[in-house]
Amino acid sequence: MNQPLPISAGDTAWVLICAGLVMLMTPALAFFYGGMVRRKNILAILMKCFACLGIILLAWAIYGYSLAFGRGNGFIGNFQWAFLNGVGTAPEPAYAPTIPHCAFMIFQAMFAVITPAVIIGSLVERIKFSAFLVFSLLWLTLVYIPICHMVWSADGWLRGMGVLDFAGGCVVEINCGVAGLVSALILGKRIGLTRPTLHNLPFVVLGGGLLWFGWLGFNAGSALAANGVAANAFVTTNLAAAAAAVSWATVEWLITGKPTMFGTISGVIAGLVAITPACGFVEPWAAMIIGFVVGPLSFFAVSTIKQKFGYDDSLDAFGVHGIGGFWGMIATGIFATTAVNPSGSNGLLLGNMAQLKIQFLAASFTVIYCAAATALIAMAVNKLIGLRVSAEDEIMGLDITQHYERAYTMLE
Amino acid sequence: MRLITAIIQPHRLEEVKKELYAADVNLITVSEALGHGRQFGIDEFYRGVKETGNLLRKIRIDIAVNEAFEERTVAAIIKGARTGKIGDGKIFVTDLKRCIRIRTGEEGSRAIG
């Protein structure tokens, strides 16, 4: 008879608080996105974000957690923990030996919620609500869960290969960014768009600020313990966000003549994205470089590449999360050091070229798998129930036509 | 002098502006308006309770012109705003008694252009 593993009060408190912080990111994202669309479409975004909190949390408990983290093969888990059977207060040593298993499960659940929610940014102002529900459940099941299993589960093949993805560069950022681009291409452009749609910049900043706050739980909580690695991740996360805010605003200042609030908050998010896979493996100076580089990189993606190719990745899920996430995965392979995290690896700067190759391979695999699977899902949903609302409904706005509600009144 | 007031669909504003510029009508005032015609807007729900007869968002355009510009202004608005569907809006043309430019005190036709 084995002794039950002792539970650490400090670790458990930290991970539960972090799960709460990550939960807050989805409502924060709702406002971050909601401010960027025309006022006739904001409720449709808030609604989709809360729909993710609703259906994805339930799906995670019913089968998602088990398929993602249960012992299956290198690509997908099994149903050993379906309906959270066996996911109780005793620790699961393969993932987090000092906290209750259910604390690890609910922390991971919040990641599964926000990832499909980020994709909303590419589909705004034109996707049918019912189609989004079906799309996001299929995407969770066929894209998020397999990639999550491959990268993070005990028997995932990418984890077995030694990939470093501390808080979700592949699992969350590349995944949602690429899915956004692919589904936006299949969905098509919005009708008659002649000018930017942003209607409430303070909402964007409010949401972005709360995303920064929540991201501290997302990244530092991924240590799954209240320890030095968590503290390092907390420091690197803040520094990368700060560096990218400064570099994005500076590039704008140089190119367009003025720094903007919208650019600054976009830089914050790009910095948080880029440090996500690296935060628990790199030192603070490296985090600053990672942040400084991602600002101009994402700025170029959304201001030049998107314009050139003319795709309607409406709120730049790809430019910020896809590009930033890929850079973050590569940067982890460059700057990682076991001085920060003994269970990680050294990167290129410490002579370990192999790690950089592994990072590149894992990121590229995620791009290819996610693009192919997302395309199939989006085309299937389009065929079955249609992805887009009618042109009349799109012109009238999704709030009133999809939900029979309006965000703002003009008269009392 | 005429005052031309048009109530149009919000999403046609850009087209209407384009047509007005093409007709060399460059001075306009735009405001938001609410209204409905015989269709009584669209239903809304408040915690399960239906509300009918709601006002829809419209755009109101006011343009003061000299007589010589009346027809081309009306034609430009129609060209830009017409979709052929219910709700395209209306144009009202009224005689304009006076027009004063505040900065200079000029009056009449000279003040309009």
What does this structure look like?
The complex is a heterodimer of chains A (412) and B (113). Chain A is mostly helical and 412 residues long. In chain A, α3 crosses α4 and α9 crosses α11. The longest helix of chain A has 32 residues. Chain A is globular, with a radius of gyration of 20 Å. A four-stranded antiparallel β-sheet of chain B has the order 2-5-1-6, covered by helices on one side. In chain B, a hairpin with a 2-residue loop joins β3 and β4. In chain B, α1 packs antiparallel against α2. The longest helix of chain B has 15 residues. Chain B is elongated, with a radius of gyration of 17 Å. Chains A and B meet through α13 of A and loops of B.
- CA distance, first residue to last residue of chain A: 70 Å
Structural class of chain B: alpha+beta
Can you tell me the overall shape of chain B? elongated
Summarize the helix and strand pattern of chain B as letters: EHEEEEHEH
What can be said about the biggest beta sheet of chain B?
4 strands, antiparallel
| Mass-distribution shape of chain A | globular
Major β-sheet annotation of chain A = none
Largest interface: pair, residues per side: A-B, 14 and 12 residues
Helix content of chain B: 25-40%
How many helices of chain B? 3
Q: Counting H and I runs of at least 4 residues, what is the number of helices of chain A?
A: 14
Give the SSE order of chain A as H and E letters.
HHHHHHHHHHHHHH
- Quote the average pLDDT of chain A: 96
